[in-house]
């Protein structure tokens, strides 16, 4: 059942009616773009939230960690349900809940209430992301799916560029609550778009997907697949470093380097531009080298980021270029690792893509949640915790790319 290279996978599944490559990429961009919108809009808002609600660093960082915890746990529910009833019902329910949770967070007057609503927001947001990854497998074999995913993540980079800058402007003009209101409006608009424009993509409905024994058997089969473990480890490590940037850059840029929220938002957006370049490289390399070859080459950017971050931690430099240059290299590698990793992990499971997508997301979010808890206790008014954390994630990402992914990344079977 194993050993078939991803590049030699079978013929492409015929897309759902009305779903061209371009439209599929647009839908994926909008659905997966909800995640950077939800995190990046808040990056310049965290210091303002802390000041307004008279909260210390740890509970403010918990607003990000709770979002990721809800995001990870809920995927374990949404994934099997999406395999049973299809993608559309799960998307519509999740997006509507996201909009409501955004309203709750914007109206909260205590930091722990914001934490609670952000957890609900993360749980709702996960429906969009888990269904997006599953939809790629519904429509395409892994190699073609990775190309479509890379195209979508280029668009996601645009969302990620706009979000911190927009967040900074909103915070500067109306305070931190305005950033969350913007999330709610985006969630409501996306709900309407999905209801009107997106057909169902799931070609295999599995009534047993939510039954305990079949579910446990499928979880065991998925976790036992070497290719799934390799690609999931790559995604989790790469996103772990990005999450340190997401959760810590606002404090480093505003409180350590002294930038205003609006300028900090613009600087954060530059990281997304580098990420977009990575997705474009990914689209160029996949046809030539395959998923594994693209990731192995991308890991050199990640390793360069690791070396620069270690230097930053040693020197504790307060130079903006010294802080941002390593993150640009990291984001460049991340733009290569994520399209390949997300599609590679789900690829072996065309009939259980929702569950496989959920397990990838849970593993990624669990790691990010732990990182968020550590970061909230470690930020100390210097750049060292930020730099050391990202350096560790970079080293682990490169190691996984050159070992586990190289050995097991081309294994594929139908489960």
SSE order and pairing:
Blueprint: H1 21-40, H2 46-52, H3 57-85, H4 87-107, H5 111-139, H6 142-174, H7 176-197, H8 212-223, H9 226-256, H10 261-315, H11 320-346, H12 353-378, H13 384-408
Helix pairs in contact: 1-5, 1-6, 1-7, 3-4, 3-5, 3-12, 4-5, 4-7, 5-12, 6-7, 6-10, 6-11, 9-10, 9-11, 9-12, 9-13, 10-11, 10-13
How would you characterize the overall build of this protein?
With 415 residues, the protein is mainly alpha-helical. The protein has one domain: Growth Hormone, Chain: A (Up-down Bundle). The protein contains 13 helices and no strands. Helix 4 runs antiparallel to helix 7, helix 9 crosses helix 10 and helix 9 (226-256) runs antiparallel to helix 13. It is globular. Mean pLDDT is 87; it is low at 1-15.
Helix content: over 70%
Counting DSSP E segments of at least 2 residues, the number of strands comes to: 0
Distance between the termini: 9 Å
- The class by helix and strand makeup works out as mainly alpha
Annotated CATH homologous superfamily: MFS general substrate transporter like domains
Would you give the CATH topology? Answer: Growth Hormone, Chain: A
> How many separate structural domains?
1
Q: What is the strand content?
A: under 5%
Number of DSSP helices? 13
């Amino acid at each position: 059942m194993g050993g078939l290279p991803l590049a030699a996978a079978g013929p492409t599944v015929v897309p759902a009616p009305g779903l061209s490559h371009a439209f599929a990429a647009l839908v994926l961009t909008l659905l997966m773009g909800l995640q950077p919108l939800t995190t990046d809009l808040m990056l310049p808002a965290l210091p303002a939230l802390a000041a307004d609600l008279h909260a210390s660093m740890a509970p403010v960082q918990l607003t990000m960690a709770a979002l990721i915890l809800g995001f990870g746990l809920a995927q374990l529910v949404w994934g099997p349900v999406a395999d049973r009833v299809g993608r559309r019902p799960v998307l519509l329910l999740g997006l509507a809940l996201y909009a409501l949770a955004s309203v709750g967070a914007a109206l909260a007057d205590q930091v722990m209430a914001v934490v609670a609503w952000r957890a609900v927001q993360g749980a709702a947001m996960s429906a969009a992301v888990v269904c997006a990854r599953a939809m790629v497998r519904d429509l395409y074999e892994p190699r073609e799916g990775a190309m479509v995913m890379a195209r979508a993540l280029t668009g996601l980079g645009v969302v990620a560029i706009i979000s911190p800058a927009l967040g900074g402007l909103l915070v500067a003009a109306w305070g931190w609550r305005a950033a969350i209101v913007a999330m709610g409006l985006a969630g409501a608009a996306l709900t309407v778009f999905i209801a009107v424009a997106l057909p169902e993509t799931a070609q295999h409905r599995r009534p047993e997907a939510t039954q305990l024994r079949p579910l446990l058997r499928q979880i065991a089969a998925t976790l036992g697949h070497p290719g799934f473990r390799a690609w999931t480890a790559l995604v989790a490590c790469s996103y772990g470093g990005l999450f340190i940037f997401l959760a810590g850059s606002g404090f480093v840029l505003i409180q350590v380097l002294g930038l205003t929220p609006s300028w900090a938002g613009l600087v954060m957006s530059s990281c997304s531009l580098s990420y977009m370049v990575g997705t474009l490289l990914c689209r160029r390399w996949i046809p030539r080298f395959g998923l594994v070859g693209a990731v192995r080459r991308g890991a050199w950017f990640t390793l360069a980021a690791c070396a620069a971050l270690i230097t930053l931690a040693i020197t504790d430099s307060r130079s903006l270029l010294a802080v941002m240059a390593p993150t640009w290299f990291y984001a460049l590698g991340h733009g290569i690792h994520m399209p390949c990793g997300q599609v590679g992990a789900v690829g072996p499971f065309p009939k259980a893509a929702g569950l496989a997508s959920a397990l990838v997301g849970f593993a990624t979010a669990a790691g990010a949640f732990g990182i968020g808890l550590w970061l909230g206790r470690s930020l100390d008014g210097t750049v060292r915790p930020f730099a050391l954390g990202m350096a560790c994630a970079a080293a682990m990402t490169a190691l996984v790319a050159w070992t586990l992914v190289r050995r097991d990344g081309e294994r594929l079977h139908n489960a």
